[in-house]
Structure formats: C-alpha cells, structure tokens
Amino acid sequence: MRGALLIILLVAGSVAGLLWGQVALAPGALWQGLVTGEGPAALMIGTIRGPRVGTALGAGAVLGLSGALFQTLFRNPLAAPDILGFTSGAGLAVVVSIAFGLVAPMPLVAAAGGILAALLVTGIAWRRGHRTPPLSIILVGLGMGFFTSALSNFLMTLLPQAEAAEAQRWVTGSLAARDWGHVAQVWLPGAALLLAALGQARLLETLELGDDLAAGLGLRVEAVRRGLAATGVLLAATGVAVAGPVPFVALMSGPLGARITGATSVAGRLLAAAGAGALVLMLADLVARSALPGIQLPVGVMTGILGAPYLLWRLSREMDRGKL
Amino acid sequence: MSLTAEALTIGYEGRTVIDGLDLEIPEGEVTAILGPNGCGKSTLLKTLARLIEPASGRVLLQGDDIHASHSGKLARRLAILPQDPLAPDGITVGDLVRRGRTPWRGFLSPWREEDAAACARALEAVHLTHLAERPLNELSGGQRQRAWIALVLAQDTPLLLLDEPTTFLDLVHQLEVLSLLRQRNRDTGLTVVSVLHDLNMAARFSDVLVLLGRGGLVATGAPETVLTPDNLERAFGLAARVEPDPVTGKPMVCPL
Ligand SMILES: Nc1ncnc2c1ncn2[C@@H]1O[C@H](COP(=O)(O)OP(=O)(O)OP(=O)(O)O)[C@@H](O)[C@H]1O
Ligand SMILES: [Mg+2]
Where is the protein situated, by its record's location annotation (chain B) (predicted)? Predict the structure, then answer.
C-alpha cells in the first residue's frame, strides 16, 4: 500500500511544522512539551504552531479534496475551484463582510460567496439545449477569478490602512495567528463533507462512464452532478474560511496524491488528494514562515510560487494533447 | 421483456426527428435498427431506453411507461450501451465490467458473491477473462468493444440495447461481436436491439429489422420482407438488387 507513504510524509511534515519556524525547537523539547504539556515548547505548540499546523492540514485537505472532485467531475485536470473562480468568490464575500462590517460566521459567508460564484460561472457558460463543455466553464471561471479578485482589491483600497493590510494578507491566503477555534472550524465541517464526498464516490465512478451510460445504469445524472458540485464548492469554501483563497493547492493535489499513492479507484483518489492537499499547504506554510529570517510570508505567496510553474506545465501538456 | 413505442414523437429544441412512430420490439428476439446517417436511430434507441424524454407518445416496457418509472429499478430490466461511452483514465477491464453492477448495489452496500459471479459470466461470454487485469487502453479496438459489451452484460438485464456495437471493427471482429450477441440470445433468451450500419450483417444475425428513412419508419419485420429494392430506395435513396446470400440464404444487398 503506497497510501502508507503519504501518511508517513504527513506525519513527518507535521513534526517538521511543529519544530521549525522563526525559532527552531529541539526534538527533545518538542517531545517533552507534547508529553508533559509544560515548558516553552508546550506554549509554542499549544498557542502558535499547533493550531497553525492543524489549520493548514485541515484547509489543505478540504481544498485538495474539492480539486479532485471537480477534476473528476469535469474530466479535466484544470478544473479546480481555484481556477474556476470559486475560491476567489468565497474570498470576495469575506472581504465584503469585513468592509461592510457584517457580523456572520466566516464559513457561512465564504460558502455563500463560493456558491454564488459557482452559480454565476455555470449560468454564464450555459447555452440552451447543449451540454456545457468543461472548457467553457474553465474559461468563464478564469474570468470570474480575475473579476472577483479585482473587486476584492478595489474594496480594500476603501478600507482604513490597518484593516486594509489585514484584508490584503487575508485575500492572499494566510495562516498567521490561527487558534484552536480555526482548527475546529475547518475539521468539523471538513470531516462531514469528506464523508459526503466518499458517499458519492460510487456515483462519481458511474458518471465517469459518460452521461448516457450512467443514465442507463440508473443514475439521475443532473441531480448527481448538482450534489457533487455542491459538495465540492462547500469543501473549497470551508478551506477558504480559515486560510483565505490560497491559490493552486486544489489544482495540484489531485494529480499529486494519485502520483504518490498510485490510487486508481475514485474513493482512493479523493482520499489521496485530501492527504496531498494537507501536505502541500502545511509544507508551503512551513517554508513561508521560516525561509526568510524576520519575515513571515503569507502562505498564499508560497503556493503561488510553487503552483504557477505547475499550472504552466499543465497548460502546455493540455495543449500538446490538443485539448486547448 | 417486450418493448413498445406508441405514437412516439421526438425532437431537439422543437425540431422533430421522429414523428408519430409506433413500434413493437418482440421479446426474446434479435432486432436491428437500420437507416441512413442522421435519420434518428440513436435518438430512437435512447428514447426507448428513457435517456431522452419524447415530445409526445409513450414507451412501454411490459406495460409500464418507462419515462414514468424509477430509473434505478429500470436499470435492472433494461441496459443500453450508447454510441460513445467514455473510458476513465487507466481503468482495467475488470473494473470497467464491475461498474455494470451499479443498479444491483445499494448505497454503500459491499461487493457480493452474485456481483462477482455476474462479472465473471460477462467476461466469459466475451472471451476476455484472461485480460481482466489489463488496462482498457492497452486493448485492441475489438477487445475494447467487447469489454464495453461485457459491462452491459454484467448488468444482467433481460433486454439489451446497443448503439453501433460493431462500428470501427473489421469483418472478423464484427462477426465475433454479432454472433456473441446471437449466442447470448439463444442461451439466455436475452432480447437484443442494436443499431447497425451493415445491412447484410443485420440480415444475417437478426430476427427482425426496423428500417428508418429520413421521413420516419419505412418497414419493419423479417429481413426478407424489409430488405427489398423498393424499401432500400425509399430509406437510403439507394438503387440495389437483393439476392439470397449464398451462405445463409438471407437477403443480401448488392448496390447497383
Ligand atoms: N443533442 C442533440 N441536439 C440537437 N440535435 C441533435 C442532437 N443529437 C442528434 N441531433 C440531430 O438529430 C438527428 C438524428 O440524430 P441521431 O444521432 O439520432 O442520428 P443517427 O441515425 O443515429 O445517425 P448516425 O448513423 O450518424 O449515428 C440528426 O439530424 C442530428 O443532427
Ligand atoms: Mg447514431
């Protein structure tokens, strides 16, 4: 089972995430802090790095899962919620709520924004009587992403300087100053949505055979597709609510997870994508906060640096295969 | 399982493709649907399998209106292999065939003995048992076509609809696929309806032919009564002579 490799990487990565940062802990101190719950290491882990690593793992997992879900649903490796504009839509909703001082739970605001963006994208790409080609949805989604990001930036120019800096950090995607509340906020809905996704894995497997054959096998194709898309959007929004619209994690995790684990079944690929997403976001955050002395970069900057070359490579591959 | 179309009118966005068609697909027999490109063969087949909602008229499966029936339950009585199914990346033949068991499996229910048995029978029938572990995309066109047929055979329905199961196959593989369906029909009483393009093959392997033209149904019945120069002229605009096939005695179309 190569799935074990992914689990080992996750455990090793999490330990590294707890040990390293602007100040490195000795492994002994980490052990003592974990066991006794006392000493400077315990404080560091309990209040700063623990929640940060926990949030990164959870947010990465839901983003990765969401990416794999959409990629399978659209049969296209570019169809991830960050490319489709859903994560920036969720981000815009949060900026709006900050700018206008709305009091509502962050996950709900993000979910509303993500769903709205998804409805707009499918609505704009929809043509009467034709099944929308995935590529149209991806192109409209790219436009939606640019538009919502631009709107977020515009709103931020209207904010007072301190709030604007905070919002700026947030829309880049940041894991700074997370607490255990954030961990719960991503893990609880994340676990429920993971179960929902796995429950639909067999439907997705049937849908992969094409709409006609799936309908012949008794699937109510449109309802199944709506259920899967809703699950995917909520997963992405759950991640955005605690980490901001970090780019590229959802895009990369599906193929990366499949590569690491060799999973071929749909359920296996979904789980692998969740694990890969957790790993990518956690390691990206680790590098972002410890690479430059005295400076903590927002994690979104790091995933952008990692993800942009991947996207270019993917695009060139798709062009070679004649799909673009 | 008898399948009946009553006054079926089917169209896309108001453009009528099939107008007021009455048709009876006899139980336990092999039926072929013939006609020129774009005359509506696939449209008709999909409507018979409840994938397209007709503008008016009904399709009855042993008396039940299929467009009003529960789709999941219907999938245990009627299987359809469409013209262009999609193969998931890297899927093996065995995995593909296992997906044919979908209608028999409940939500989250485990894989049962009878599911495995049905898949084994289906692979056996298409002679692919030894290739079950191979990825589908490493198979030849003929083998791949047989793998898709195994998927719908694993669905274990008494009625099977196939859209052009022999297109892209050479003569030998066409014979192989059609005699396989014929064999299945003789062994298990499976009712088979397929869309075919090769008139002589259709005559050879079918009990009943349904000949469509641009204007709708031209003729239906035994091959001898359907494949006449007159009907071929009406359906295809084809001038042809029809002679008995020296091997089988069935009608053989020779275009002039
Ligand atoms: N999804 C669709 N939307 C609009 N028109 C369609 C659609 N599918 C088919 N048609 C039209 O309906 C008519 C019948 O198409 P159909 O696919 O049933 O033909 P066919 O007899 O199966 O042809 P072929 O032998 O080429 O497979 C054609 O004119 C086609 O252009
Ligand atoms: Mg056709």
Answer: Cell membrane
Can you tell me the distance from the alpha carbon of B11 to that of A70, in angstroms, rounded to the nearest whole number?
Answer: 32
Residue B166 alpha carbon to ligand 1 centre in Å: 18
Whole-angstrom CA distances from A111 to A156, B34, B159 are 20, 52, 45
Q: What percentage of chain B's residues is helix, strand, coil (to nearest 5)?
A: 40, 30, 35
Residue range A28-41, pLDDT digits in tens: 888 888 788 777 77
Please indicate whether, in this complex, the C-beta atoms of A212 and B82 are within 8 angstroms of each other: yes
Q: Give the confidence band of B135 by pLDDT, cuts at 50, 70, 90.
A: very high
Which residue range forms the structural domain that includes residue A300? 2-320
Domain with B122 in it: 86-156
Report CA-CA distances (Å) from B167 to A142, A173, B132.
39, 52, 23
Is the per-residue pLDDT at A129 higher than 70? no
Which pLDDT score is estimated for A9? 94
Q: Give the global pTM.
A: 0.90
Number of domains in chain B: 2
B194 Cβ inside 6 Å of ligand 1: no
ipTM given for this complex: 0.94
Which of the two residues, A322 and B136, has the higher pLDDT score? B136
CA distances from A229 to A106, A223, A232 (A): 21, 10, 5
Ligand 1: residue whose CA is nearest its atom 7 = B12
Is B46 near ligand 1, meaning CB less than 6 Å away?
no
Residue B241 CA to residue B227 CA, distance in Å, equals 10
DSSP letters, A200-251, are THHHHHHHTT-HHHHHHTT--HHHHHHHHHHHHHHHHHHHHHHH---SSHHH
The beta-strand segments (E) located in chain A are none
Summarised one tens digit per residue, pLDDT across range A252-305 is 999 999 999 988 889 999 999 999 999 999 999 999 988 888 888 889 999 999
What is the domain-level CATH number for residue A158?
Answer: 1.10.3470.10
B230 falls within a domain = no
Chain A contacts of B164, Cβ < 8 Å? none
Nearest-angstrom CA–CA distance, B12 and A129: 8
- Greater confidence (B141 vs B132) lies with B132
DSSP B145-203: HHHHHHHHHHT--SEEEEESTTTT--HHHHHHHHHHHHHHHHHH--EEEEE-S-HHHHH
Q: Atom 29 in ligand 1: which residue has the minimum CA distance?
A: B38
Residue B238 lies in a domain: no
Of A125-134, A190-199, B36-45, B46-55, the range with the lowest mean pLDDT is A125-134
